[in-house]
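pinging the channel bc i need a second pair of eyes. not urgent but kinda urgent?? the chain im working w is below, pasted from the shared doc
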Amino acid sequence: MTPFFVLIKCSLGEAYKVATELADAEIASEIYSTAGDYDLLAKFYLERDGDIGRFVQEKVHCLEGIQDTKTIITFKAF
């Protein structure tokens, strides 16, 4: 499994709604609220040969209240 992170910027007042929708969809292993340019940080796992871009587009971008995302692909855990 390949872990990756998605920083999520929500529309004003929508962060808790988006976090709840992510949690209810059971697609993220962890979801954190954050301060700064993004409102949420979500950790996902995908099969090693899975298409991360397609996953984010089809499973994350479709959630109402998301304004912007930034995907961070990981290589190795230490």
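so Residues 12 and 67 are 9 Å apart (CA to CA). and Strands lie at 2-10, 30-33, 40-46, 66-73. — does that match what u expected or am i reading it wrong
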